[in-house]
Amino acid sequence: MKPAFVDLSHSLDDHVQVYPGDPIFSCCPALTIESDGLNVHQISMGSHTGTHVDAPYHFVEGGAKIDEVSLDSFIGNVVVIDVTNKCPKEHITWNDIAPSEDLIRRKAALEHGVFVFLHTGWSKHWQSDTYLEHPFLTRDAAQRLIDLGVKAVGVDTLSPDETRVDGSIPDFGVHEVVLKAGLILAENLTNLGFIQDGDWLVSLVPLKLKGCDGSPVRAFASRSMVGSP
Question: Would you please indicate which residues are annotated as catalytic (active-site) residues?
Fold first, then answer.
């Protein structure tokens, strides 16, 4: 029997991989049952730790902060594009997405609209140097997705743009066009292969962090009745 729910999030632990230069994650006991009669942990992390969403404010001065983005922006039907044939650092272009254009349009017209997730298969490299060598979306392809009416773009990689570790600044074209359009990005997703077929509704609901540019999420997909008779 196929699962009714699929977890799309990486676990947050001592080995969480973060974007180069971002704060590291830590979760340490602050109180213990043995000493204090209860367990409480102290958590420290950046706003883009693990599986997370970016709010427009991440790249847009005056853009909506994570607590200002409407809740319905974080719930959507999903179209998963299989780009597992891509090599390290290879571009994901509109030609890779175009065969799914009609499906994207159809789901965009449904209640809750549509998310488009790019399934590179790169989540299998999580916590390794190879994870930094992921394929990445072109600015033009991102703009075409916006023009189709998508609510969010998601990736199973560290970023939809190229990640560089040589100190140079990459072209953040996808971040710029998606966030300037007032939409959201989801990064470090996993298990996208499990929701590539069928109809799924995805939740990307973040923490309500006042004034923040992003938030970790417990992303998950649930089976939708869209395709049911």
Answer: 58
